[in-house]
Amino acid sequence: SVDGVEVPPAGWRSRKARELLRILASRRGRAVAREQLGDMLWPEGGDAGRVGHRLSVALSTLRRVLDPHRLVPVDYHIIAAPGSLALDVAHVELDVEEFFAEAAHGFRLVEQGETAHARAALALADRRYQGDFLADEPYVLVGTHPDEARRVYLRVGRVLASLASRAGETDEALLYLGRVLELEPYDEGLHGDLIWTLTAAGRHGEAAQAYERYAKAMSAIGAPPRAREELRVDSITFHAGGGSSIRMTRHLWTAGLTSGRDQVVYSAPLPSVSLSGAFGRCQPVEGAEDLDEDEA
Predict the structure, then answer these.
(1) Which of 128, 208, 210, 253 is deepest in the core (most CB within 10 A)?
(2) Residue 134 to residues 23, 182, 197: CA-CA distances in angstroms?
(3) From the centroid of its chain, how far is CA 58?
């Protein structure tokens, strides 16, 4: 969206401009070589000069979409170097970046013992998650990890479940564990968390049913299920993304982490650009016509 208004399909004018934005968004601020962009947008190849001109046209179109009233410098949203392009994430809001920042902030609060504030911050991250980052993106770039958001979301869910369980809110803990198990139904650790959360709450019948579901899930992938007692792990360590790590015990979470990218908020009259559609699935543009490569 631009200034809080979603760009309509007709507003794009060019599918290639939309695709260019998707590629740059997938890099989350890291530069992409112009030659690589040309190969990805026009895989049929052709004269290098002609492809370069087409890329310039797509870039010009994209800039007009992001700043229709010419209120900011030309490189405000897209940084253009002689050999590369990059999205300036200080001026373009990516939902996935906010998700990572909220998750990192929540983990940091856990480390500081601010569990109430940590739960609030992580709940924001939980609500923001809409699916894998650019899950339907056909352009796979070296250094791009579309499932990174999923991995962090799974850890957010486990932390929230642990904090809820510590607070005696078993149903809320089970809700979070159920969500993450839907995404990772064959994760033995998650099944163990669920079984022992139920056991600790005295809900032994439900715990037995949860163990049966675990055993069926393991059998479905040809893995022998572990004995129920073996699933109880007193300490689990895993990475929380962005250089962070989390260690879980039965009664305590501690965390050491590197915070995500700082978010920059600016006020009018600068155009506010948000790529909320880049987090999860982006719908194809209907009715957008490609500009001729000779158009400026």
Answers:
(1) 210
(2) 9, 19, 33
(3) 26
Task: Tell me the per-residue pLDDT of 149-166, one tens digit each, with 9 for 90 and over.
Answer: 888 999 999 999 999 998
> Burial of 18 by CB count in 10 Å (0-12 exposed, 13-18 middle, 19+ buried)?
buried
Distances (CA, A) of 270 to 68, 73, 208, 274, 287: 11, 10, 58, 13, 29
In DSSP terms, which residues pair with 84 in a beta bridge?
Answer: 33, 81
The predicted model scores a pTM of: 0.62
Residue with token string 């490609």? 290
> 124 - beta bridge partners?
none
User: Taking CA 68 as the corner, what is the angle to CA 67 and CA 69, rounded to the nearest 5 degrees?
Assistant: 95
Q: How confident is the model at residue 71 (pLDDT cuts 50, 70, 90)?
A: confident
Contacts 24+ apart (CB under 8 A), 198-207: 198/170, 198/174, 200/165, 201/170, 203/170
What is the spatial distance between Cα 68 and Cα 2, in angstroms, rounded to a whole number?
9
Query: What tokens appear for 237 in the block?
Result: 């360590």
